[in-house]
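Support case: alpha-D-ribofuranose complex. Customer-provided input:
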Amino acid sequence: MSGPPHIVVVGSANVDLTTFTDDFPRPGETIFGRAFHLGFGGKGANQAVAARLCGARVSMVARVGDDLFGPATIANFEARGIDARHVLITPGASSGVAPIFVDRSGQNRILVVKGANDRLLPADVDAAAELLLSADCIVLQLEIPLETVYHTLRFARRHGIRTILNPAPGQALSLAEVADADYVIPNETEAEALSGMPVRNLDGARACALALLERGLRRVIVTLGAYGALCAGPEGCRQVAPYAVEPVDTTGAGDAFIGSFAFFLAGGGVEEEAIARANVYAALSTLAAGTQTSFVTMERFEAAWAGRG
Ligand code: RIB
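Agent response - structure generated as follows:
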């Protein structure tokens, strides 16, 4: 490979409406929140931005609405140096939006209204075939129709292109269809949705990852927040240590992990080190509010990586 890896994200783009609050109104009640933040989000877009900040060449295949947010989302991609030729404005559809609630401990609750994301169809992927064929890695999530995810995985397998599937938000899937992915990377709740098994601690994550391998997945990485990540493949399971921080807002940390992992791996890194690096990159993203706005530059990452314990 000459130059930085080319990562193509086939996925969602949302606008995040983040409210910082510790309490939630009861029906008919009005209460005050602490603060509000409006920013670009969506799991696909976030992963694209993380990979780009790390130094990858990034292209996005997505759909946005024909509302105020659509052109602004495309402008955000372009301003970040992400190729948005295959980000289409969808007549008659609203853009994807995500009302997000963050409490004092930095934990988030997210509602996603998919809007135009739900109109990203296999034909759009076919229209981007030439672009996909030049990818070192294709990254997918589940805020677009499942048939589009399955179609892209089959395309990538036919052409020998590496794929990473982040099965988020958690939902029941055809494991046979996603067995084409080189990596499936859920968090705890997404791992539960995939496997139907409880994932409440490291042992639960290990049992779940091994069960998913038995059911045909190639490699599974369960991201565990403060416990780092658990990587499972035919050779067994191992935990990759976390990078300890005091989080302000964990929204998008999983996306920071996926986007940076795609870069570190596709750039030729060894898997275990790519995971360790992605753990640090994701942890750093929890130190500021917002999703994409909290993702750090490579300089900031390298300083933390060099200084880790
Ligand atoms: O993972 C965080 C993201 O989930 C937010 O940006 C929101 O848009 C939803 O897609």
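The first helix runs from residue 43 to 54.

Case will auto-close in a few days if no follow-up is received.
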